[in-house]
Each structure stands twice: as C-alpha cells, then as structure tokens.
Amino acid sequence: MIIARVVGTLTASDKNPELRSTKLLVVQPLDLDGEPDGDEVIAVDRVDAGVGERVLISREGNAARQVTGRDLIPLQNLVIGVVDRIDRIDGGSPGGRGPA
Amino acid sequence: MRFARVIGRVVSTRKVPPLEGYRLLLIEPTTARGEAAGAPLVAVDTGQYGDDEWVFYVTSREASLPLRDPFCPVDAAVVGKVDRVDLEDGAAILDLGPRGAAP
User: How far apart are the C-alpha atoms of A17 and A62, rounded to whole Å?
Assistant: First the structure.
C-alpha cells in the first residue's frame, strides 16, 4: 500500500461497465516527506475520501475485486483509508490533511 | 489506472487467438493535466476509443479482465475516456483535443 493525497476527481461517462457507479478520484502518490512522488493515478474510493485528504491506496487487483464484489472489474487502485497521522521513529510526523 | 492519450494504433494480423478482433492502441501516459508523462506503450482497446482521445488505462493482470477471454495475454487495456478532471486548485481539464494543448 502507498500513501497518496486526493488531488481531484475524474468524470468519465464512457467507461468499462464494471466501473459503473464508482467514484473515481485522482490521487497523487507521496513520499514519506509528503512530497509528490511520480505521476497521479486514478483510484476508486471506498471510504468517502475528499479532495485534499491524505489516503491509503491498495494497488492490488484481487483486493479490488473482493472489495467491490465485481469479479471482472479492471481495477487495481483502491482508496481504502484516510490517514490520520503517520508516526515515524525518526521524529518526522507529517499530518493527515493537506500539504505537509 | 492512469491517464494517457491515444497517439496511434498498432496493426497485427498474426496474433494469439484471444486477441483476434481487438484493436491495439498506441498510448502515451499523461499527468492529470494532460501533459505527456513517460514512454508510450501499446494497450488493447476495450471500447471504441480513438485517435487523440484522452483516456485511462489499467495494466498488469487486470488488463485482460474486460476481454472475451479474461486470461488473454495482454498487460495494458484502455478502459475509459476522460470527460473532465477537476483538480483541487480549481482547474477543470476537459478532453483537451490534439496533443494536450490547454483550451
């Protein structure tokens, strides 16, 4: 799993039928300092996450199939949690919301 | 899933049977703002997606799930077309048309 920030929403009316009625979020993967790490990816929201929140992303297709109950959903990235806090043994402790 | 723009097609007549009937698209990954980001790749077309459209694609094992044979040996598939992306800074990016020029 990785930590990412919700940076936007995706509207797509023409998509694979298995993706119907899903909430598609644009998320920016973060490094441990809260800085952007790579390009944005699209994830399906399962926890009612909002723009600006720091979230936990599972990137496993089988997890996505189990959670959605759709055996043929062409999906890997799932928003499975909102991060409240990250406690680091070295003292770095980025907050859970908004920019680090 | 990631964003990409359709930049062409790959034509292959002799291919594994489960791939017959499917179009192969040449796509270039983009950022959420439609800017080119990374090396182009080939993805199977699971809808009717075409030249210059802004789309999104899935990779790995999940790429074959939309196909007739869900074990078809492919590793990337275009699974939708972007209507618009709304970003936290207020930017709304619509399907930008050719080459991602801002409207």
Answer: 18
- Read off the pTM: 0.89
- Distance from the A90 Cα atom to the nearest Cα atom in chain B, whole angstroms: 31
pLDDT tens profile B29-86: 999 999 999 999 999 999 999 889 999 999 999 999 999 999 999 999 999 999 999 9
Chain A residues closer than 8 Å to B2 by CB? 39-42
Which residue's structure tokens are 């698209």? B25
Rounded CA-CA distance B11/B26 in Å is 10
User: Which residues are B2's β-sheet partners?
Assistant: B57
Report how far residue A61's alpha carbon sits from residue A70's, in angstroms, rounded to the nearest whole number: 11
CB contact under 8 A, A42 and B31: no
Q: What was the ipTM of the complex prediction? A: 0.86
Instruction: Mark B52-79 as b/e (b = at least 16 C-beta within 10 Å).
Output: ebbbbbbbebbbbbbbeeeebebebbbb
Rounded to whole angstroms, the Cα distance separating A100 from A3 reads 12
> Which residues from A are below 8 Å from B56, CB to CB?
10, 12, 15, 42
d(CA A68, CA A59) in angstroms, rounded, equals 14
Q: Are B67 and B17 in contact, with CB atoms under 8 Å apart? A: no
